[in-house]
């Protein structure tokens, strides 16, 4: 089973207030269309570093909840960050991986081990405080609110399939105004 | 952009105290140290840092994680210094390019120049990796400095202050092997 990404993100968005949301690549474009906010952090550069940016934000702003919407291809490039995050143990970090088994942003070629990799198992072994797996929209929508209340680091696997293709605007993603808007919003948000 | 290449004066072989480096790091307002151990700086710098109050070490599994962590912290107005070996710096080039250079973020890095000969300019080292580290940063437009002896530690604070004031990455190479 799997959930349509846009539908699952809409269910998540109902529980997101003034949280920082670090969103990666294709998921980022779905997310910013669903929940527009200057506290969306979509400028993670490349090569799987979203979870590391999120750790920095979580440590720098322990008063704010930080959600990272990671990709499975991205996390595979930065699996060590699971151990680093578990060691640093920020209570305000919720780490999602949206697992569709492909490098979606680069032609949707399959990721290695796409049919058997257990990211929540990795996170559990690394030392995350709690780990969850969702592949059904109704269950996800019913439970995600309480999951977000758990002390972090929390890990959530969302088994997804793409919905309608989002508008991909990489020029916007990497633009200076997006970064400056985030900085201003974060420093005005206490 | 004006590039800062390594010093042209011949470095003087002499003592480099980790305690002097740590004092400058703290005076620079650094609060977080993402790090991987480097045998060049292990005993003289990293181990004393583990005992230093007021600094939070974040042990990372790979150096480019530290680039991301420093980026996130910078948005929170928190200063960080990524401590690693120059090999880890070279391994992190794409992250430095994307996050530090293209996003204009103050990613501050301190990298041990393992195997650099005392009193020899990095570009004159007989070790290929040591020789090319500075030129690689020049190609990226990343400022860098060499801390060889105690006489050079005064470069640390201005370099970090400039990175945060002007939003650019900077690398502080540790040329001499620090003693505690």
In brief, what are we looking at here?
The complex is a heterodimer of chains A (190) and B (180). Chain A has 190 residues and is α/β, with parallel strands linked by helices.
Describe this structure in words.
The complex is a heterodimer of chains A (190) and B (180). In chain A, 42% of the residues lie in helices and 20% in strands. By secondary structure, chain A is α/β, with parallel strands linked by helices. In chain A, 48% of the residues are buried. Chain A has a domain at 1-22 and 38-48 and 59-109 and 130-162: Rossmann fold. In chain B, strand 1, helix 2 (42-50) and strand 2 form a beta-alpha-beta unit. Chain A binds chain B through residues 41, 43-47, 49-61, 78, 80-81, 83-84, 87-88, 174, 176, 179, 182-183, 186-187, and chain B through 32, 56, 58-62, 64-78, 80, 94-95, 98-99, 102-104.
Taking strands numbered 1, 2, ... along the chain, how are they ordered across the largest sheet of chain B?
Answer: 4-5-7-6
Count of beta strands of chain A: 9
Shape of chain B: globular
Report the CATH superfamily of chain B.
Answer: Thiamin diphosphate (ThDP)-binding fold, Pyr/PP domains
Task: Write down the secondary-structure element order of chain A.
Answer: EHEHEHEHHEEEHEHEHH
The secondary-structure class of chain A comes to alpha/beta
Strand percentage of chain A: 15-25%
| Count of discrete alpha- or pi-helical segments spanning 4 or more residues of chain B | 7
Per CATH, the class of the domain at 1-22 and 38-48 and 59-109 and 130-162 in chain A reads Alpha Beta
Overall structural domain count of chain B: 1
CATH class of chain B: Alpha Beta
Main beta-sheet annotation of chain B: 4 strands, parallel
**Beta-strand content bin of chain B:** 15-25%
> What quaternary form is this?
heterodimer
Which runs of chain A of at least 5 residues are low in confidence (pLDDT < 50)? Answer: none
- As residue ranges, the low-confidence spans of chain B are 1-7
The CATH topology label of chain B is Rossmann fold
Q: What is the CATH architecture assignment of the domain at 1-22 and 38-48 and 59-109 and 130-162 in chain A?
A: 3-Layer(aba) Sandwich
Helix content of chain B: 40-55%
């Amino acid at each position: 089973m799997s959930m349509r990404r846009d539908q699952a993100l809409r269910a998540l968005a109902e529980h997101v207030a003034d949280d920082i949301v670090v969103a990666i690549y294709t998921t980022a474009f779905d997310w910013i269309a669903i929940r527009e906010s200057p506290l969306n952090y979509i400028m993670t550069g490349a090569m799987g570093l979203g979870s590391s940016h999120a750790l920095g934000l979580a440590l720098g702003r322990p008063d704010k909840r930080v959600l990272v919407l990671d990709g499975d291809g991205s996390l595979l490039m930065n699996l060590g960050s699971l151990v680093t995050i578990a060691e640093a143990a920020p209570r305000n970090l919720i780490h999602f991986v949206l697992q569709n088994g492909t490098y979606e942003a680069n032609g949707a070629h399959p990721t290695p081990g796409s049919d058997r990799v257990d990211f929540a198992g990795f996170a559990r072994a690394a030392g995350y405080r709690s780990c969850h797996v969702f592949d059904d929209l109704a269950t996800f929508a019913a439970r995600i609110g309480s999951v977000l209340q758990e002390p972090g680091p929390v890990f959530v696997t969302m088994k997804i399939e793409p919905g309608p293709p989002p508008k991909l605007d990489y020029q916007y993603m990497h633009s200076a105004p997006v970064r400056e808007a985030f900085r201003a919003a974060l420093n005005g948000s206490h | 952009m004006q590039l800062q290449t390594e010093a042209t004066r011949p470095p003087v072989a002499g003592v480099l105290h980790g305690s002097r480096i740590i004092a400058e790091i703290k005076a620079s307002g650094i609060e977080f140290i993402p790090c991987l151990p480097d045998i060049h700086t292990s005993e003289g710098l990293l181990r004393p840092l583990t005992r230093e109050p007021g600094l939070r070490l974040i042990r990372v599994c790979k150096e480019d994680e530290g680039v991301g962590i420093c980026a996130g912290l910078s948005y929170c107005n928190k200063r960080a210094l990524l401590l690693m070996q120059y090999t880890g710096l070279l391994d992190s080039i794409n992250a430095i390019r994307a996050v530090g250079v293209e996003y204009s973020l103050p990613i501050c890095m301190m990298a041990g120049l393992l195997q650099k000969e005392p009193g020899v300019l990095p570009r004159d080292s007989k070790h290929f990796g040591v020789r090319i580290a500075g030129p690689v940063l020049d190609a990226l437009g990343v400022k860098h400095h060499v801390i060889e002896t105690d006489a050079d530690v005064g470069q640390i604070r201005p370099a970090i202050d400039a990175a945060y004031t002007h939003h650019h990455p900077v690398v502080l190479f540790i040329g001499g092997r620090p003693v505690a």
